[in-house]
Amino acid sequence: MSGIASAANIPELRKRVVFTLLMLFVYRMGVQIPTPGINGEALAAFFEKNAGTLFGMFNMFSGGALSNFSIFALGIMPYISASIIIQLLTVVIPQLEALSKEGEAGRRKITQYTRYGTVGLSIIQGFFIATGLEGMTGPGGAPIVMVPGIEFKLMTVLTLTSGTAFIMWLGEQMTERGIGNGISLIIFAGIVARMPAAVGNTLQLVKAGELAVIFIPIMLVMMVAVVVFIIFVETAQRRIPIQYAKRVVGRRVYGGQASHLPLKINISGVIPPIFASSIMMFPATIGSFIKIDWVQQASAALSPGTIYYYILYVAMIVFFSFFYTAVTFKPDDVAENLKKNGGFIPGIRPGKKTAEFIDKVLTRLTVVGAIYLSAVCVMPTILINRFNVPFYFGGTALLIVVGVAIDTISQIESHLVMRNYDGFMKAGRIKGRR
To answer: If you write DSSP's letter for every residue of 255-299 in order, what string do you get?
Structure first.
């Protein structure tokens, strides 16, 4: 508590925290503003019936905006999908790869392309959703769209695209002027905001006799165990010892001290599950609105709870774990910087051999991290689906909530450390992701 009190005494940090909270408040207010032309009662009944399906997952990431069909119904997922596409294209297109190496100017250009891609994907998704909703009805047979037609489609596409663009702007503002990663915080806020409703739904299931009371303590113990495991792994490090050679400049001797290179076990953080979920939702969402037999069968096969869904989900988590680590961490650059500063790993030759050693360690850590992410995201969800527990208690949601919370706290603590304040933990500070 003393660390929190100290944070309140730092004007810059206080402004950043307040700004972040205000932006999240604006986001949650927008979630409550419905898109015109929708029968809210029929839509709510539809999502209540399909809470455990792909619609439930999409609704979770949008913070309930999809079940309300608000102006933020698409959520931040088009931006994440656009980011994935741009990062993949950066590897295969030389021009984009050159831009990524041009420093701040190149990153701004890539960010601009990502924004264009977000708008394009939002238009496509908005059109398919508007088209699909026109042919859908609630459990009682009431149509979800009150006045179908081209006017509804155009209005819906414009509204949803504008809403996603605004969320994207909110996320960028939070990252720049607030605390933590804005996009991750938006997803975090959406999941946390839906937790009370999930608790209420669980209690209703118990009262209706659809969920045995004995499973409640089991579920709570499982949640606590998963959270503890996530915190342990997310704060764990593999420390590579670094020794700096002594350098004589004039009459002074520099270097000679020992240090270490900290590598997190899960270097990619919560990015792989978010990316994998985004990829899994995009084609299946489009397919669920197309009334063609083979498309419907493919969509059903990729719905949460099927063996094909879990296999593909785990494969994507593993792929994005390696891909994101390769994009964000360059062993050659680290080895070159160590060599320039007179640092070396004991027993390893500087230069190429050091890069190969770091890459070897990094590969092993990424394998462990990918297995950890897959287990946390899939195993609790499989158990929960069998016990008919609300989807929000799944491993993916817990991983995102705990991971983003750790990242945000570590950033706050970094501000405190720079100003000689004690951290939040007496025994030691929370280790950041990077």
So the answer is: ---EEEEEEETTTTTTHHHHHHHHHHHHHHHHHHTS--HHHHHHH
Q: Answer whether 344's CB lies under 8 Å from 372's CB.
A: no
Q: What is the pLDDT of residue 54?
A: 55
From CA 300, how far away is CA 309, in angstroms rounded? 9
For the chain, give the mean pLDDT.
Answer: 79
Tally Cβ neighbours within 10 Å of residue 294.
9
Tens digits of per-residue pLDDT, 351-393? 888 889 989 999 999 999 999 998 888 877 676 666 665 555 5
Architecture (CATH level 2) of domain 2-418: Orthogonal Bundle (1.10)
3-state secondary structure at position 21: helix
Q: Is the dihedral of CA 395, 383, 319, 170 positive or negative?
A: negative
pTM of the model: 0.75
- At residue 11, the pLDDT reads 77
The DSSP 8-state label assigned to residue 429 in this structure reads P
List Cα–Cα distances, 289 to 156, 161, 280, in angstroms: 15, 19, 15
pLDDT, average across residues 71-88: 84
Domain extents for the chain?
2-418
Residues in the chain: 434
